[in-house]
Predict the 3D structure of the following.
Amino acid sequence: MISKVMEEALNKQLNRELFSSYLYLSMATFFDSNSFVGMAQWMKLQAEEEHIHSMKFFDFIQKIGGRVILEQIDKPQLDWDSAQQAFEDALAHEEYITKHINELTDLAIAERDHSTKTFLQWYVDEQVEEEATANEIVQKFKLIGDSKSGLYMLDRELGARILTPDTAVK
Ligand code: FEO
């Protein structure tokens, strides 16, 4: 049986993952409206991935006898100064999510809640990937600088992204 404090903390993270999906969808519309179709596609897939992350919390909370409480999802930012700025914000957002996953894990340890701690380990590992991927893209933007052809190539590269089975199945 899950404690009330753990249940509330997991529900808050479920809301953060839904907000992540919303934020990345908003970035997708920003890219679409600026003709970066590849980046828009990349962000749409990222939004889908975040929805999967949220549903893993949804299923886990129910499975361990908790109650899912769906709260309001904040309105995401609509525009960014540049494509690079949007990806820099995505990286900052992933760092914020990592901080919360670490805090949740600390709470599970303090509560001696081994099943939740084991569940959270997937997210601890996933956040390493999430930050590394976002950081890699930010570094590419920095290399490209003001080169229009470089931006075009990066847009094409990001548009080739597919949702991996590992992400989609779990
Ligand atoms: Fe669900 Fe991108 O972390």
